[in-house]
Structures are given as structure tokens and as C-alpha cells.
Design brief:
6-stranded antiparallel β-sheet; 25 helices; 27% helix; Glyco_hydro_3_C_sf; signal
């Protein structure tokens, strides 16, 4: 990129400043944007001002205006410090109430920056068009802080690229018009504390046509079957869409590449767009290929070199690609194993290691590196979406990346992955399911499978064949910020919900993966991520996530490994290791990062369990292994990691792995094994035959049928913990008072991993809030979020409280979070429940501590994170469906009890694992005598293998027992009974329930 700059010392600053503002005679004078002399306040939108932002509370930088003797302009400069783990920076937005600024007369923008010589990149962003600074289009570039002292950074507007990883309003016209500018932003480096100083932001230079006019082509890659003709469209366009003032000449020539003149008819010539040509005018070039006598060939490239006069040339040379043909791996009739072996035998080391490399979509821009580095995979991190964030845009984006892969020798398609952990949750308008903890509460494996099938259909319809789900963690401590990603605390419950794998993938042998409504599933996070000890994390401010799980070999196998055995048996296609460390008691190794544990990945997962899919690392997961980067690479790959998620360091990983193989520290046999596993799944997915999106199912995204499945899941996930006086179900005729922070917030009820990584409060995606659903069932309803409206004259109150969204360790208790209701929620509960009969719904990713208020609450519901279908919650509140959900985790009395889980020797919770009252169901009569009879019948059903009858008999016993009060003596056998039920021990389950009945 073009940069002009002056390095200035304090002593020479005064004498050199005139040079900094020197300009050509016909240049317009510089226009100040920020002088940092106090003329622009620290203020947030919609006011004119400078404000900070970040991914969490620790990430926004600190800013201040500081007097400096060496200030390049005036007396003050903008200074700041930062320590960013996610993302953070600052922005200057112009006032929303005033017109946008016109910068089109200028060549670019410049500013003074005090370098720290830290080698870090600093991103600089412009806000173009749209309604205001927060609803504009973002254009970005960066500079490297590789200098010391003050330096004036000059950035021509032509250096800015449309931001591909995030657009606040989904993009507008993808043209940097410059006539409606709303300000700028600076994104600061992450990973280490730093400081900065900045001064004198201004517009400089004179715009000319070569800076505002550009020649583009309709694609960068043009695949064509040999003997066919490729058509290339060449377009001239201007910022602001004005006609060109001067002629633009384009000379073209086919030259270079891997194809020879025998493969195509050489093309050479020139044409001109005359002055006055409208922006968007297109000319067409055709490259004719020839059929040759070779029966089989790899793909061959024909670069079409364009030399442009009077405008900016295309960013890269377009390539016509003659498709590979006649090679055995391209024959879909051959067995997958033979296709893999043939392709692998032809690949170079660089091509193989490229297949083992996964990059983030935001890092590869338009995707040129896919071919340059032979990349095997791309992903979208949480919130990394195309613009606009629509199904059509997703498909178009992924097709553009697949097109890039066609420019490689073997045209191996990429496999694109996304975290669709409760529906296609990155896509606005998708069907958002309850999070896994709610699915676990349903105790309905068939429904879990249906939610997986809906997710798969919506994900595949946007061109994505791979889902980083399901999470098979067994959560053992509710202080963990990922608790809601687990189906529950009992490995037997997690195993029972693994039907979701079939919902995602279809048949266990992988034969359905090629279908347009199936995706490759990922079992994560192997192994023990749900068992990390509180206080053991060393990741930033996390307290438990990514920490250490300490277990004996027997405990490890019984609790954390069991779900992975089931997943392998179900044919899960990929497995992702955990960030956490595993400390197996007695093995002498101490805590070892899972990405480095060859004994677990190679030894247990691949050899003992027979996993034949491939292992994908977590986001930068290998970076947490002790040692330098080369060591991280060889350790993780030798441990059995087949593909490494190196989102922004993909080039470093690729180069390092090649070097490790050449040095003999990673064997070629290990590389061949990894690549064989990856290619096998690509063939099973049908990507070689159909690499592009099949959008035929896009009309079903967010459809009534899909939402009906989510609605049922939301309804069955509701756990009725208390129902004094049968307050629930509600009646339509009742006068209902609704309050609480989570009654009318689609973002809160959907939780983290919704549209963005952390999720957000507010109207973030289409759906029905709990309040909206209740209004559809009640003729007489009043809503007051803070319960400030008068409280008299109502039959019943419903207070919907709980958590706001978070994800991963950001949500750890002790990292800005706890298990207590907020002060506002507590106040709402106190007000409403003191004034009338009340039902309290807790919308959260984990149990909340409500023991001190339980006495004043008549009915209590664990609503978990129900997703976008609030109608499902209303269905059970108003008796359209019975409450049937059961606790997937133990509900503690206090944080001091944590961790507390079914099977513990000391067990005295608020509500035991498996607890869940039922409505609309008659409870059997007879008490202890009936329990004896049910036990005998359950034992008989167990012997006969009559699982449905056995489960029904245990369910009848539960109804009898749950009428008793909960004590420590009651809770332990009651919870044990639910575990026994899940493992098929129906007679013993009834015996435990009988024990609980007698102990109450």
C-alpha cells in the first residue's frame, strides 16, 4: 500500500512541520477532521463525539486529551492505553442530526501516530453512506506500528477495502462514494497491553479520475470445460457513480499460466471506454479453449492480463481455468477409498498441508489465498457474516470461495464450517432452537434429532456443509460460562441426546451427507471441558473455562469419555479438542493441553474408539500449547489433530507445518493420514460433484414448519420447579400482570451464540418474545418491565427474569458474572409477588440462586434459553401443552455448594437433578403400595426389553414421589433414579424413587 510519512523528533518538529503540510499548487487545502484540542468531545452517538468500544468490559481502551510539548498540531494529542483480549478501539462519529460530510474532493486521509515499534497492525476504518455513523458502510485498511516517535500516516482512499467480516446494516452499495461520510474508527492490536498517541486527522490532496475510477471484472476465476469458451466481463465504475471525465483504455493479453497455446486461442488487444461513459458500463472478452488428445489432466490456468490507463486496474489478474478431467479421483462411481488414494498420490507436500489448514473468512478477503495456499477449509467465527446477513448472501459468499478453489491443480473444494449450535444461529431470520441445556431438559431424543435436522437443512441451504456441533460436554459446575452448551451434568443424559448427530448427518455410514439437507457434525470439545475446576483457568480473566480437569482414568471414562464413544458409534464426522487441560491422576504427566494429548486423540479417540473422521482444532487452539509456534504445530499434528483452525495465522501455520515435515519432525505418514481423513469427508459430502450451494431449501429457513419444531422444543424444555396452589397453567380469562427484564427481549431469551458470538440483548433477529406469545393467549394483560405500573386488580403476576447473553469464558462466574438475579429483577419479583399470586420464569443458561425468595414465589419455572419461539413457553403457561421438562442439572441452594451433581455423596440441593412437576396429568393414587406395584412392573418391563413401558412406569412413580417435600435424604435417591432411568434400569429407578418417598 502507498504510504508517505515523516519521522519527526521533538527537537526538529517545529522546523519540519511545514513539510508535512506541503501540497501541490492545485490541491485543495487540507480539511481538519480532528485536531484533539477539545473541539470534539468524548461523547456517544447520536452526538458528535469520540467514543470507545470493545468485545467485553475490559476491552475498550482508555482515552484522554493530553498536553504535549511535542504535539505535531496544537497543544494536545489524543492518548490512550489498552489491553484487549477480543476486540476494541475508538470511533469518531459525526452528529446524526447534521448532514454527512463530503470528502470526495480529496485524495485521502492522514494523521499523526506516535509509533511504539511493536510490529502490530492497527486497523483504520471509514464510515460511508447510510443514515448515520452507526448505520453506514464500513471500509477498512491498516498500517503497521514498526517505527518509533511521531509519523504522519497518509492513506489514499483507494487503499480502503470494503469490510467483509462485519457491516452494521448489511452493507449498502459496496461503493466508497465519499460524498456522505460519517467519520472514522481505529481498531487497536490485541493480545498484549499497549499505548498510543494520535494527532491531526485531516483530509489531504486532490482527487483525480485515476483515484476514483476503477476497472473490474465480474469474477477472478472462470472455470471452463476444455473446448468451451470463457466469457469475461470488464466494467468501469467510479466512486459516486459519476460518468468518467477522461477516456479509460484497457489493454488485454492472455499470457503465462500453466496452460499452453495448444490449450487455447491466444487473445490480445485493446479497447477504450470514452470520456462520458456511464459508471457500470461493461465490455466482454472471450477466451476460447481447445480440446486436446490427453485423456486426463489436472486443471490449467490462463491468466488474462489487463493493463489499464486512466483508472485503477483490477486488484488481481483474472484467470480462466480449464477444468481437470479424466482423473480417477473425479470419478464419482469409484469407492471413496480409491478416490482418496488416487488424489493423495498426486498431491505435493504444500497441497497436502494446505488441506490441513483452516482460515477465517474475514482473513482471506475475497479469497485469493485459497488457491495461493491450497487452503482446505474456511470458517465463520461467531458473528462473522456476509453482508447483508441473508441466506442468499451466505450462499453467494461461499460460492465465491469455492470458485477460488477451482483455480488449483486438483480443484479440491473447500469445506466451510460454522458454529450452528442452536439452529443456524449466525443467520438473521433463521430458526433459533433452545440451547442444549433446554434440549436436555426435554428428555426427548426424537425431538433432539428433529432440531438437528432443521438446523442441518437451514445451514446446508446457505452453502455450508459443516457444523461445529454438537457440544458433548458434561457440565459439572454451573459457574462455567459454557454450561448452556451442555445437555446436562449426567453423561447418560448427554448420550441420550446424541440423536442430534443423526439429525445433522443422517445415516451413521455417511451416505446421506451429500444430500441438500445434511451437514457434517462435530463432537466437541474432546475431552473433559465440562469438568474444569473453578479457578484453574489461565486464559485472560476467565475463571473456569479453558481450565484444568483433574480425574482418575475411571472417572474420565465414566463421565467425560462416554458421550464420545456414543458419537463415534453414531458416525460423527469430525471431533474438536478442548482448549482445556487434562490431568489424569497417576499418569505422571500433570495438566496437559488437550490439543497436545496424543494419548487421548491418537490413542483413545482414533485407536481405542475407532474414530475414522478427522480432528479439527479449536480457534487458535494450538497456540495455547507451551513452546514456540513450530513446537505448537508439530506437537498438535503429531498428537492427532488433522486440521488446524488458524483463523488469521493460516499462512504461518501452513509454512511451519511444511518446514516441520521437511525437517523430519512430523512424518509424511502422519500428513497422509490427516489428509486422507479430510478428503474422505469431502467426498462423502459430495463436494467434488456439487461444490456450490444448493439453495433449493432456502425458502424453508425460518419457515412455519421449522419454527414449529423449535416451538415444541421450547415448550418441552420448560421445567416447572414449584406450583403452589396450581397457579399454572394460566387461564385466558385471568387478569395477568407481566414484569421482568426478560419478558420482552428476543436477544436475552436466545442467549449467546445468536447472530454474534456473545449474543446481545434486544431485537436482534425475528422471533416471538415470551410477552408477545402471552398476549396472544390473554385477553387481559398488562406489562411493566420494572413493575412500576399499579399492582392492584390482577389475578396473577408473571415475572420473567434471568441472565443477559454471554458465551464461553466471558460468562464465567467471577468474570463479571454471578448466579444471582440482578437488583432490578429482584425488585420486580419482590413487588409482584408481594401484591398477588405469582409465577416466576427464569430465562438463563444455568440455575440462578433464588433460595431466599422461594417462599414468596407461588410458581417457579426454569425456562433456560428457549430461542426465538416464545410461543412454546406460552403453550405450557396457558395449558396448551403440559409441563413435562426435567432438570438436566442440579439446582443449588447456594454458590458454596458448587460443584454439585447427581451421584455426589453429599447432596442437598434446592431442586434435585431430574426434578420437574407436571401439569394436565393425573397422579396415580395409592402412595407406597402403588410404588411397590410399579416397581414390580418396571422390573418385568426391563427383563422383556420393553423400554417404552419401562420409562412410562418410572414416570408414573415420579408423579407420586414429587408430591413430597425435598430434603437431603429425599434428593439423593430421587436424582439417582433419573440416572438409572436413562441407563435402562427401570426397576432400580422405581426402587430409588420409593426410597426417596419414604425418606421425605
Amino acid at each position: 500500500m502507498r504510504r508517505t510519512a515523516l519521522l519527526v523528533s521533538a527537537a526538529l518538529l517545529t522546523s519540519l512541520l511545514p513539510l508535512a503540510v506541503a501540497r501541490a499548487a492545485d490541491d485543495p487545502p487540507p480539511v481538519a477532521v480532528d485536531r484533539f484540542e477539545g473541539e470534539v468531545p468524548f461523547a456517544s452517538p447520536p452526538e458528535n463525539g469520540i467514543f470507545t468500544w470493545g468485545s467485553d468490559t475490559d476491552d475498550p481502551p482508555t482515552l484522554r486529551l493530553s498536553p504535549r510539548d511535542d504535539a505535531p498540531e496544537g497543544d494536545q494529542v489524543l492518548t490512550g492505553s489498552y489491553d484487549i483480549s477480543g476486540y476494541g478501539g475508538f470511533t469518531h462519529d459525526f452528529a446524526f442530526a447534521e448532514p454527512a460530510h463530503d470528502w470526495s474532493a480529496h485524495q485521502g486521509i492522514r494523521f499523526w501516530w506516535e509509533g511504539q515499534n511493536n510490529g502490530k497492525k492497527v486497523a483504520f476504518e471509514l464510515k460511508d453512506g447510510g443514515a448515520n455513523g452507526e448505520a453506514s458502510e464500513l471500509w477498512t485498511t491498516s498500517f503497521t506500528d514498526d517505527f518509533s516517535g511521531w509519523k504522519q500516516i497518509e492513506i489514499p482512499f483507494t487503499d480502503f477495502a470494503y469490510r467483509t467480516d462485519y457491516q452494521p446494516v448489511g452493507g449498502i452499495d459496496h461503493v466508497l462514494g465519499l460524498t456522505e461520510m460519517w467519520g472514522y474508527g481505529v481498531t487497536l492490536p490485541v493480545g498484549a497491553p499497549g499505548r498510543f498517541a494520535m494527532d491531526g486527522v485531516e483530509l489531504y490532496g486532490k482527487a483525480d479520475q485515476s483515484l476514483r475510477a476503477a476497472v473490474t471484472t465480474d469474477s477472478a476465476v472462470y472455470p471452463v470445460t476444455q473446448g468451451r469458451t470463457a466469457t469475461v466481463e470488464v466494467t468501469v465504475a467510479t466512486t459516486g457513480s459519476a460518468p468518467i471525465d477522461e477516456p479509460v483504455t484497457v489493454a488485454y493479453e492472455t499470457a503465462g499460466g500453466t496452460a499452453s497455446d495448444a490449450d487455447y486461442m491466444p487473445l490480445k488487444g485493446e479497447f477504450t471506454f470514452p470520456a462520458g461513459t456511464a459508471s457500470g458500463t461493461t465490455r466482454t472478452l472471450q477466451v476460447v479453449t481447445r480440446k486436446d488428445r490427453t485423456a486426463s489432466e489436472t486443471a490449467e490456468t490462463i491468466p488474462l492480463k489487463l493493463t489499464v490507463t486512466g483508472a485503477k486496474a483490477p486488484a488481481e489478474t483474472p484467470q480462466v481455468v480449464i477444468d481437470a478431467h479424466g482423473l480417477p479421483y473425479l470419478n464419482s462411481k469409484l469407492p471413496v477409498k480409491k478416490r482418496v488414494a488416487d488424489l493423495l498420490s498426486r498431491m505435493s507436500l504444500a497441497e497436502k498441508t494446505g488441506q490441513m489448514t483452516q482460515a477465517e473468512r474475514g482473513a482471506v478477503g475475497t479469497g485469493a489465498d485459497i488457491a495461493a495456499d491450497d487452503l482446505g477449509s474456511l470458517l465463520s467465527g461467531g458473528g462473522s457474516t456476509p453482508t447483508p446477513n441473508t441466506a442468499e448472501a451466505w450462499a453467494k459468499m461461499i460460492d465465491s470461495f469455492q470458485l477460488r478453489a477451482q483455480a488449483t491443480r486438483f480443484q479440491i473444494p473447500i469445506v466451510y464450517g460454522v458454529d450452528a449450535v442452536h439452529g443456524h444461529n449466525n443467520l438473521v431470520g433463521a430458526t433459533v432452537m433452545p440451547h442444549n441445556i433446554g434440549i436436555g431438559a426435554t428428555r426427548n431424543p426424537g425431538l433432539a434429532q428433529r432440531t438437528g435436522a432443521v438446523t442441518a437443512a437451514e445451514v446446508r441451504a446457505t452453502g455450508i456443509p459443516w457444523d461445529f456441533a454438537p457440544c458433548l460436554c458434561v457440565t459439572r459446575d454451573e459457574r462455567w460460562g459454557r454450561s448452556y452448551e451442555s445437555f446436562g451434568e449426567d453423561p447418560a443424559l448427554v448420550e441420550s441426546m446424541e440423536t442430534v448427530v443423526q439429525g445433522l448427518q443422517g445415516a451413521r455410514d455417511g451416505r446421506d451427507l451429500k444430500d441438500d439437507d445434511r451437514v457434517l457434525a462435530t463432537a466437541k470439545h474432546f475431552v473433559g471441558d465440562g469438568g474444569t475446576a473453578y479457578g484453574s483457568s489461565t486464559t485472560g480473566t476467565y475463571t473456569i473455562d479453558q481450565g484444568v480437569t483433574t480425574a482418575t482414568r475411571a472417572q474420565l471414562e465414566a463421565i467425560h469419555l462416554a458421550p464420545y464413544k456414543s458419537a463415534v458409534d453414531r458416525g460423527v464426522g469430525t471431533v474438536m479438542p478442548s482448549y482445556s487441560s487434562l490431568d489424569v491422576v497417576g499418569d505422571g504427566l500433570g495438566p496437559v493441553r488437550m490439543h497436545a494429548r496424543a494419548d487421548m486423540i491418537n490413542g483413545v479417540l482414533k485407536k481405542k474408539l475407532g474414530f475414522d473422521g478427522f480432528v479439527i482444532s479449536d480457534w487458535n487452539g494450538i497456540d495455547q500449547i507451551p513452546g514456540d509456534y513450530a513446537s505448537d504445530v508439530r506437537t498438535s499434528v503429531n498428537a492427532g489433530v488433522d486440521m488446524v483452525m488458524a483463523p488469521y495465522a493460516y499462512k504461518d501455520f501452513h509454512a511451519a507445518l511444511v518446514q516441520e515435515v521437511r525437517a523430519g519432525r512430523v512424518s509424511e505418514k502422519r500428513i497422509d493420514d490427516a489428509v486422507s481423513r479430510i478428503l474422505t469427508q469431502k467426498f462423502r459430502l459430495g463436494l467434488f460433484e456439487k461444490p456450490y450451494a444448493d439453495a433449493s431449501g432456502a425458502s424453508k429457513i425460518g419457515s412455519a414448519g421449522h419454527r414449529a419444531v423449535a416451538r415444541q422444543a421450547a415448550a418441552e424444555s420448560q421445567v416447572l420447579l414449584k406450583n403452589l396452589g396450581s397457579v399454572l397453567p394460566l387461564r385466558k380469562s385471568q387478569r395477568v400482570y407481566v414484569a421482568g427484564s426478560n419478558a420482552d427481549d428476543i436477544g436475552n431469551q436466545s442467549g449467546g451464540w445468536t447472530v454474534t458470538w456473545q449474543g446481545a440483548s434486544g431485537d436482534i433477529t425475528p422471533g416471538t418474545t415470551i410477552l408477545e406469545a402471552m398476549r396472544g393467549n390473554s385477553a387481559r394483560l398488562t406489562y411493566s418491565k420494572d413493575a412500576s405500573e399499579p399492582l392492584t386488580g390482577y389475578d396473577v403476576g408473571v415475572v420473567v427474569v434471568g441472565e443477559t447473553p454471554y458465551a464461553e469464558g466471558v460468562g464465567d462466574v467471577g468474570n463479571g458474572h454471578d448466579l444471582e438475579l440482578s437488583a432490578a429483577d429482584r425488585a420486580a419479583v419482590d413487588k409482584v409477588c408481594a401484591a398477588m399470586k405469582c409465577a416466576v420464569l427464569i430465562v438463563s443458561g444455568r440455575p440462578q440462586l433464588i433460595g431466599d425468595r422461594l417462599g414468596e414465589i407461588d410458581a417457579l419455572v426454569a425456562s433456560w434459553l428457549p430461542g426465538t419461539e416464545g410461543d412454546g413457553v406460552a403453550d405450557v403457561l396457558y395449558g396448551k401443552r403440559a409441563f413435562t421438562g426435567r432438570l438436566p442439572v442440579t439446582w443449588p441452594k447456594s454458590e458454596a455448594q458448587l460443584p454439585i451433581n447427581v451421584g455426589d455423596a453429599a447432596y442437598d440441593p434446592q431442586f434435585p437433578y431430574g426434578w420437574g412437576l407436571t401439569t394436565l396429568t393425573k397422579v396415580p393414587e395409592g402412595g407406597a403400595a402403588t410404588l411397590v406395584a410399579l416397581g414390580a412392573a418396571a422390573r418385568a418391563a426391563e427383563r422383556a426389553g420393553a423400554d417404552d413401558r419401562g420409562r412410562a412406569l418410572v414416570g408414573q412413580a415420579r408423579l407420586i414421589v414429587q408430591r413430597k417435600g425435598i430434603t437431603a435424604a429425599f434428593a439423593k435417591p430421587f436424582a439417582d433414579a433419573d440416572h438409572l432411568l436413562l441407563t435402562g434400569h427401570y426397576g432400580e429407578a422405581v426402587r430409588k424413587l420409593t426410597e426417596a418417598y419414604r425418606a421425605a
